[in-house]
Amino acid sequence: MEVENMILSLAKARSSFTTKDILSKIKKKYSRQYIIKILNKLVSEGELIKTGSTRNSKYFHKDKLDKIGNRVKLEFKNKGLEEHKIFQVVEQTARYLRNVSEHIHSIFTYAFSEMLNNAIEHSKSKKIEIETGVNENRIRFVIRDYGIGVFRSITKKTTAKTDLEAIQELLKGKLTTAPRSHSGEGIFFTSKVGELFVLNSYETQLLVNNGIDDVFVKKLDSPVKGTQVIFEIDLEHKGHLSDVFEEYQSSPASLAFDKTEVRIKLYTMGTIYISRSQARRVLNRLEKFKRVILDFENVPTVGQAFADEIFRVFVDKYPEVEIEPINMNESVNFMVERVKRS
Asked: What does the DSSP assignment read for 150-170?
């Protein structure tokens, strides 16, 4: 109790402090390991709030949360973590989360919980780092693990052979590497409910910019071990979480995630001519949906075999799946109509 009381006294006297401050005050009477153990105990009891990680950690007394500011960093050992309890810690620390509109808070909570759950259950990382922040326009979170990597995990456990193919499958939805315990909806909906969604993993980045309604895939200059998720939402965001769920229902009565949208441009990367093999990549798992939107924006042309595989072979095999092409230029539209009439 002597060390605990000394630490709490220091916490009340200062706006913040570090482990080094404690060690300096006790003049090597106790080991660093022992002090860290006591600090972790006080954090778990809610008496102290910890921000930052390892030797860059700072501690605040629970009554001085206003000193933390508009950016909070936390680190957790990935052992027995539960996302709702972690969010409680984050919300207690990042008080600015309490001041956002209710519908934005709901979206932020959903996205944060889904992405943290992925890190906890799928990454096999020993630690997870969390950062939240707010400015005058947006609120954001970053979740980082040091595990297997989201794209590598998919290529190991599904038919996807490359990071790009993993991304193509992710963006369709209903993709999970643990089908018994997950529906495969988390990344799909999280990528659509805010303004910006980014997945950085090893050499590859997926960036979804809903502000301009576009998706980008690129190679990272500096590889990111594991997975880093970045999510941002405007403080003036008008949409509700339920709006996005409803958008991906084939009908209001279905109450199910049975509609998806596929951006064909993601299947043209690295090639000019889109063939039957790419069509089969596009069609992979689409029989799981009742309605599929195929977006041909920024696709200059498609091959006859590509159109035939989708609009004749697949349609004949799965007549219950509605295929709707959009944003076709004249060249693409000609090829699609030609196949439909043959």
From this structure: HHHHHHHHSS--SHHHHHHHH
